[in-house]
Specification:
The complex is a heterodimer.
Chain A: H1 11-45, E1 54-60, E2 69-73, E3 79-85, E4 88-93, E5 104-106, E6 111-114, E7 119-121, E8 127-129, H2 130-134, E9 141-142, E10 144-147, E11 150-155, H3 157-160, H4 164-171
Antiparallel strand pairs in A: 1-11, 2-3, 3-4, 4-9, 5-6, 6-7, 7-8, 10-11
Chain B: H1 2-11, H2 16-23, H3 40-57, H4 67-76, H5 81-108, H6 117-138
Helix pairs in contact in B: 3-5, 4-5, 5-6
The chains are: A alpha+beta, B mainly alpha.
């Protein structure tokens, strides 16, 4: 009794208590870890809800003449072409659905052109040449609404949020090196010659 | 134990002491080193890659025209898509690293010697398989 390897009286009890506690902790950890992953997998597979749009002010309707367009820059830094045809407005993303390069409006050809793989879109954003045509892809559009003479654009949370990367890129003065998409660094401007 | 326990015991007739005998198999002392876990690590990561790969395959469109858009959807729009994709990406990298560490362990503990020469050959085939599969995944457009 004097030489108890368990560290005195009650060692037997302590040992069984500790092994029970560690067993419970281990099972709890496994269940919560794998349970969290199953939950994540379920959320991943469940069809995504259309994210709620946040409405941002674009311009006064009176300031956008029919047949013209303006370049709207989101707080996240991506450029959206907002064009007016008659009384209808259309908002087109400037991100090519093929590999994510920036498209630009070419007034002389009346088309959007993506310099990366010669993707071509017509004035309504439909793919008419290059990879976007082959895959039947269009420039994505955004909802617009007019409220009391003011034009608003509906952006999802991600697009509407400030993007630190873009801000940092914007504040960088050095010219883009080789391999960069030059269009990324082009300042947004109002191209009045845009025609639908 | 109750009704539920009796129900299970009737269908899975294993007693607690038998289970203990199976799971508490004594491990030789010289095997109680962390580097002997490096064989199970790539095996576990392989299962992780299969599970996350199946999840990603629900959304990924492998054609060159649509791959970018589908990966963008996974990363930006699908719930936890960025997370599943990151696990898959990091799991692939770690699996190659774990396989190499495992081979180093086998080499320096001399575990390839007679009568285990076949294990080394099978291991080499698995190494080539791992590198091949890792390469095909790495070559995908943005995946």
């Amino acid at each position: 009794m004097s030489e108890n390897p368990d560290g005195g009286p009650g060692g037997e009890e302590r040992r069984s208590f500790l092994s029970r506690v560690s067993g419970v902790a281990m099972i709890g950890g496994l269940v919560s870890g794998y349970g969290a992953f199953v939950h994540i997998a379920g959320r991943f597979l469940y069809p995504a809800r259309k994210p709620e749009a946040r409405w941002l002010y674009v311009a006064r309707v009176a300031d956008v003449a029919p047949g013209t367009a303006l370049a709207f820059q989101t707080p996240g830094g991506s450029r959206i072409t907002v064009a007016r045809r008659g009384d209808d407005f259309i908002a087109l993303s400037s991100i090519c659905p093929h590999l994510g390069c920036q498209v630009r409006w070419e007034a002389q050809h009346e088309r959007f052109f993506c310099p990366c793989h010669n993707g071509v879109f017509d004035a309504t954003g439909k793919g008419t040449g290059g990879p976007p045509k082959d895959a039947d892809q269009s420039l994505s559009t955004f909802p617009l609404k007019v409220d009391r003479g003011l034009l608003y654009i509906g952006l999802t949370e991600e697009v509407a949020e400030l993007d630190d990367d873009v801000l940092r890129e914007d504040s960088r003065d050095a010219p883009p090196g080789p391999g960069h998409d030059p269009c990324l660094f082009e300042r947004p401007r109002c191209d009045g010659e845009w025609r639908v | 134990m109750g009704v539920v326990g009796a129900w299970f015991r009737e269908r899975i007739p294993i007693s607690g002491s038998q289970l203990k005998e199976l799971t508490n198999e004594p491990v030789p002392n010289h095997l109680k080193r962390w580097w002997f876990c490096l064989g199970g690590t790539p095996a576990y990561l392989f299962v992780v890659q299969i599970v996350t790969g199946i999840l990603l395959a629900f959304y990924y469109k492998p054609s060159p025209d649509t791959a970018y858009e589908s990966v963008r959807y996974i990363t930006d729009e699908a719930a936890f898509g960025w997370y599943v994709r990151s696990i898959h990406k990091w799991g692939a990298t770690l699996m190659v690293a774990a396989v190499i560490l495992h081979q180093i362990r086998v080499f320096f503990t001399g575990a390839y010697r007679r009568p285990r020469e076949m294990n080394w050959m099978v291991g080499m085939c698995l190494l080539i398989c791992t590198l091949t599969v890792g390469f095909t995944g790495y070559s995908r457009i943005r995946c």
